Each structure stands twice: as C-alpha cells, then as structure tokens.
Amino acid sequence: MQGRYTVVVEGGNRMIFPADFRKNFDERVIVAVSMNNRCLRVYSEEDFDNISVKLLEDGKTKAEALKIVRFLSANAYKIKIDKTGRLNFKDEAFELLEYANIEETAVFVGVGKIVEIWNKAASEKVNSLSNIEKLAPLVVDTDL
Q1: Closest CA to 52 of 80, 71, 34
Q2: pLDDT tens digits, 9-42
Q3: What is the pLDDT of residues 39-72, one digit of tens each?
Q4: Cβ within 8 Å of residue 85, ≥6 positions away
Q5: What is the C-alpha separation between 116 and 134, in angstroms, rounded?
Q6: Which of 18, 82, 104, 128 is spaced 20 to 30 Å from 88 by Cα?
C-alpha cells in the first residue's frame, strides 16, 4: 500500500479509514504503537500474529523476544471498522491516540502491507518531500 491521506478526527476518537487502505483489510484490524516513530500502525490480524511469531523465531534471545512481543501485544487493540468505514478508538484504545498525539487531524500513510497513522505535524516533518535529500544516500544502490 502506498499514499498519504489526511482525515478529520471526529468526536475526539473516530476517524475515516481511507477506502484505498480499507479495502486491503477485513472488518477488524489491529492498531498498535510503532516501535520506531511516535505513530500508530494498522495490521491485519494475520500480519500482527506473523510479526509476533517472527520476533520469537528471530536471532534475539527468548527473553528479549518475549519482552518485545509482550510490549507490542499489551499496546495493541483490535478495532472493528464500522459500517461507515470509520475506526473508533473507544475505551482503552483511546490511549493510542494520546500516545501518537493525534487530536484533530490524522494522516494515514501506506507502508507496504501496513498503514501508519500519524499526527499531522509529525507526518509532515518525517514524510515531507523536503526529506528527499536526506534519504537519497540510503537508496543509492537501488532503482529508486
């Protein structure tokens, strides 16, 4: 998935899940904190389970892997996409919006098989075209 969509946060905890992304998911998604940036990540249930298995099978010690999987699982919520295509961060899941500083506006960014949800200012800082010069050295040996 690719692209970037800005949406309004309604009622402090609901937002449209852009149709271009929504079509790639079932009616339930897993929304978790990102370990790399102060944003959220949207996974299919299957992809989230696969990440947990991969972490446990990776080269990390079992204790390290369990700490990471435990943290991710404790800070992830199943959220149903409602009939109008919205994600509703109610009850405990609201803490995810607080973590990512998402208040009035959210930015959805497609990143391969997952979707990230950003605070608008943070997204502009990280995903702006003005960053191309900083990123160019990272893709020197590719066809990008």
Answers
A1: 71
A2: 999 899 999 999 999 999 999 999 998 889 999 9
A3: 999 999 999 999 888 888 876 677 888 888 899 9
A4: 16, 17, 19, 22
A5: 21
A6: 128
109: which 2 tokens?
């960014």
Left (φ > 0), alpha (ψ -120 to 50) or beta: where does 48 sit?
Answer: alpha
The encoded tokens of residue 140 equal: 């020197």
**CB neighbour list of residue 5: distance below 8 Å, 6 or more residues apart:** 18, 20, 21, 107, 108
**pLDDT tens-digit map of 76-125:** 999 999 999 999 999 889 999 999 999 999 999 999 999 999 999 998 88
- Tell me the C-alpha to C-alpha distance, in Å, between residue 103 and each of 32, 69, 110, 120: 17, 28, 20, 9
Distance CA 82, CA 105 (A): 19
**Contact indicator for 122, 128 with CB cutoff of 8 Å:** no
